[in-house]
Amino acid sequence: MRRRKFLSLAAASLATPALNISRAWAAEPGAPLPIPEVMEIGPGAGNTLDAIRGTREFTGGATSETWGYSQDYLGPLLRFRRGRTANISVMNRLDEPITAHWHGMHVPGYLDGGPQLAFGPGETWAPELPVDHPAATLFYHSHVHGRTGPQVYRGLAGMIVIDDPEIDDPLPHDYGVNDFPLIVQDRRFDRSGRMIYSLGMMDRMHGFQGDQILVNGVIRPKLTVPAGLVRLRILNASNARVYDFRFTDGRQFHQVASDGGLLARPLAMASLQLDGAERAEIVVEFSDRSPVSLVSRDIGMNGVMNGGMMGDRGGSMMMGDRGMMGDRGMMGMDGNSGAPLEIMSFDVGEAAPAGPTRLPTSLPSDAPALGDPVRRRNFTLNMHTGGMMRGGGQTMGINGAPYVMDRIDETVRAGETELWRINADMMMRHTFHVHGTSFRVVSQNGRPVDSAQIGWKDVVRVQGPTEILLRFDKLASEETPFMYHCHILEHEDAGMMGQFTVT
Questions:
Q1: Which pTM was predicted?
Q2: Is the pLDDT of residue 148 over 80?
Q3: Do 344 and 445 fall into the same domain?
Q4: pLDDT digits (tens, 9 = 90+) for 285-301
Q5: What end-to-end distance do the CA atoms of the chain give, in Å?
Q6: Plastocyanin-like domain spans which residues (predicted)?
Q7: What are 327-354's pLDDT values in tens digits?
Q8: Nearest by Cα to 211 from 471, 20, 76, 464
Q9: Which of 137, 163, 189 is the endpoint of a domain?
Q10: Would you give the distance in Å from CA 384 to the centre of its chain?
Q11: Does residue 2 fall inside a structural domain?
Q12: C-alpha–C-alpha distance, residues 156 and 136, integer Å
């Protein structure tokens, strides 16, 4: 697709906003935050996830059809221990193939749960996972080619926590008391309040975004916390939306971990941006006992505020991140003027503070040296590769080719450090994920990045040339290769995905 044609399509789509859905119901915030049940996964049998159908009332009186792992929507929190084998069985009780991908986990390709490992209705997949990963917050979800977007959207996802018995965790870690999982998603609802997933042109182009924010499956919930340090494990489990989290009173907090595990030291900040599938652990001080809300800037479909195609300084129209902007302001694509999105609220209970009372100055992070790269690879994310998807819409791809399941795109040698350069063929935001390892971000948009502050990653925002340094220690065969892809789920379903072996 030529650039001019692409810009014309984007502008034309403004006549049919994707998110401005009138409704006859009101989504009331303030229900208690559900705390996911914990499933401790060890070497024994009996750890079973059943992929099942369910129903849920996200809003008063309206019932939505959902999917989940062993519950009506989402799944339990899976807790693994480093150095201990994890045996788990996943039973497919649905009517189409699924997988269980252990997103971010360092396991061989035949255990990774990618598209090659899909299993059908009535079948069970029972992997034995050798847990060789630093303490971290990870993600699990179905990963069937062409169906990842709708399956995750319906609820086939959950959080993983890996504990490392070799380190003394100096942070709050009493689960459900001062250590809380926050699975953040946006969902779209029709006039009656039923959750819907129906792709229009803008949804295919930018990824599907919803008009309501859920945390752990509840719209804008409330959490009561102790008056002290509280650890929040935040997972952006949305299909495409970017969040820029902050508190309404402007309070600072400290990031202590990213995708791959703990940072070298706590990092003070007042806002935190997470793209799809990114995770971050933050520690927040609530000793002042003041109620507060967690909100996000309403970042639009191309991932930035006031970004995208900008015009001159006169009275012309400019394409902003959410719609058409003229010299008198912005006409938002979702019918508002950029008001912050409320994520959830906090109040402080009467219970005495639990756990540590102050943050350490350093953290027990696992930071092996990668050394200099012996090889460089280039990846271009393509918004159009020719042809049409089944069901409508353009195919997407990487390096000029859409994903094909029986094609190996790259061959990587185990133990060798490589530098990957990722870019896009159009002025679009993407979110690049690599299976089987964690990596260091070296540069973005030609500017060096302090990788010690960002930490170990398995997802990185691509909004201009981006370089990552990585090494693979787990093997992947031609039968069960690793994947690299855009983690905007509608993009990967459209073919923006490749696969590689590690030998």
A1: 0.89
A2: yes
A3: no
A4: 999 999 999 999 988 76
A5: 36
A6: 54-166, 383-502
A7: 323 333 333 346 799 999 999 998 778 7
A8: 20
A9: 163
A10: 23
A11: no
A12: 21
